[in-house]
Amino acid sequence: MPIFFNVYWFVACTVSSSCSDAFPLVYRILVLVFVFLIIGIIVWIFVANWHRVELTVKIIGVASDALSKNLGLFVVIPLLTLGLVVYYAPIVVFLVFARLNGKIVPKESKGEYKCVWKQDSWVPAYYTLAILTMLWSLTVMVEAQVYVISGTIAQWYFTKEDAKPRRSIRSSLRNAFGPSSGTVCLSGLLICFVRLVRAAVDSASQENVPGMVNLVLRCCVRALLSAVDFLNKFTINFVAITGEAYCTSARMTYELLKRNLLSAVFVETVSTRLLAGVTFVLSAIYAIVVCAILKAASSIGVYAYIVAALAWALLIIVLGFFVHVLENVIETVYVCYAIDRDRGEVYRTEVHEVYSRLPISRNHRSPIAPIAPVV
């Protein structure tokens, strides 16, 4: 696509008389060569890291195989989202009617009196409480979805290959909104707090307040928020597998990865970037094809671009949902592999063949600690 657009603008500018007069041929060639150099550097980066890409593709393939054995997740996860929308409906209705609570009072302005509407004093507080409740409910539902995905995939992983887990999704739902509901709510509260603080820090950084102390404080807050995000990354997966409390699961997950010298960075960054890139490329190609078909088969004019943009946005949403589920499956399989390795067992041979090729963490070079049971 970059090569196509680079050649396209060069040819279009050469054909157009106004563009060729305003942009001489020498400068056009320099820009063309410069863009090709940038493309060459990107291609070289891909070639130099092709072994990482191949490993990531194999990891995604293993996760896709696990997901194909639990296709019911594609029904349950949207239903949970629909349940959140239904839960939001009365809150939004109450927010609308809360604005009607007040009275008409006189107000003096430049010696003249006029009637104005004054809301009751509790309305702003109710708005704040309702909005915070909606944000917390959103993060709790996201964590509940991760819990259901992790619990379902873990039951598939730790079941013998010749057997099939029964009612795995139902049991994961029961545990998520039953014994582990407090842990899910606590995880959602932490994520909500991190998002609010990060948004406040980002808005403060845009104001360009001078001072070294302000800069140091922002860096410290961002480092603390990143640490909380990293701590929470695999904790909810571990909770869904073991049923432990949040703090216990966070400590056991860190110790589990440390004992086995496993790094979470590779699984977290490379697979996410690769899936995001695939999603963007497929959506862009789909939008271009839709626009070309509409241009050739209809005469709607400029509306063809609007329809293509809507098709691009719709496919981004659909593929984003699949990528979200697949990323959680990858993380769950990763934690299950770490548990397997820690206990010296092999439940899924195909998973061990792929995940054993992951790079060893550089942060821990000490000998492996004695193996302890985690389940």
UniProtKB/TrEMBL annotation:
Query: Which species expresses this protein natively?
Result: Salix purpurea (Purple osier willow)
UniProt key word Transmembrane? yes
Role summary: Choline transporter.
Give the protein name, as stated in the record. Answer: Choline transporter-like protein
InterPro entries named among the record's database cross-references: Choline_transptr-like (IPR007603)
Q: Which UniProt keywords are present, listed alphabetically?
A: Membrane, Transmembrane, Transmembrane helix
Instruction: Report the subcellular localization.
Output: Cell membrane; Membrane
GO cellular-component term (any): plasma membrane
Question: What residues form the membrane-spanning segments?
Answer: 29-50, 71-97, 126-154, 175-197, 274-295, 302-326
Entry's family note:
Belongs to the CTL (choline transporter-like) family.
Q: One Pfam annotation, family name? A: Choline_transpo
Name any one GO molecular function: transmembrane transporter activity
Q: Does the keyword RNA-binding apply?
A: no
Q: Topology in the membrane?
A: Multi-pass membrane protein
